[in-house]
Amino acid sequence: MDKTISVERLVRVFKLKVLTEADYLDREVTRANARRPGLEFTKFMDYFPKGHVFVLGENEIHYLKSLPEEERDEQVATLVKYGPPSIIVTDGRDDLEYLPKYCKRHHIPLLVTEDTNYEFIRKIDNFLIKELAPEIAIHGVCVNVFGIGVLVRGASGVGKSETAHSLVGRGHRLVADDIVVLKKLSPRTLLGTHNGTNKELLSLRSIGLLNVVRMYGRSAFQDESRIALDIELTKWKEDELYNDLEVETKFTEYMDVKIPSIEIQLKPGRDVVGLIEAAVNNWYLKQQGYSAKDEFIKRIEEEIDAE
User: Fold this and answer.
1) pLDDT tens digit sequence for 78-96
2) Which CATH number, 3.40.50.300, 3.40.1390.20, 3.90.1180.10, 1.10.10.10, labels domain 5-131?
3) Are 5 and 27 in contact, with CB atoms under 8 Å apart?
């Protein structure tokens, strides 16, 4: 089922002033990204985008005011008759005697924000993309290590939460424990966050629930993080770890988004937290085009050439 957001929620979140149709704030926004009318003012309506909020800035208002009254009324009537969920005017402009008439006729809430057009569109687009993004919930832990989002998965009791607690103790940040909500922001971008109920909370066996912010300060928690690595904690398996120069990159898919994945086997005395930090740093270096394997091979070739 597709997600929606009511106009009433936009009014609350962005503290919008309601000029008309306060009784119709239950209208639903179904598309991410607000839209500034362009082609609509040329009466080219073949591909009119349904479900988008329309935002009018100084340029659009100036254009409408420059038109003869009859033509302006025709432009506005064409715009609203296709039923956008709401029309929002930026820059605090409420001198819009020609807009309320048609918004009332078609029961379209007309709203005003004090923000500039650029500022408001940036904020509402960011909000709508996240809120309307497809999402799933998975069992695991999400942490931010050195500024990079990491999913930590594994069987129940393997030590995911304990690992997250140790990472927080090393100065990293908890995003979500036990239940991680994944949001697909684009074909290549996955965002990890909490479900609200588990915000700031970490559950440790034999200890119970901890509030990491109360215990370790504000810097111990992050509300959301883009996922860059998927790490699975597994029990130690003899003869299954190899000292290859470079481990082949594997991937885990969530909602068709591929995330680089590695397995870390657990054994008493093994520094799992240190290995996760190493994995994150190594991933970052690879993004910068550096490969320790390539450097090692280059050194060997240079030694051979020098002989």
Assistant:
1) 778 778 899 999 988 877 7
2) 3.40.1390.20
3) no
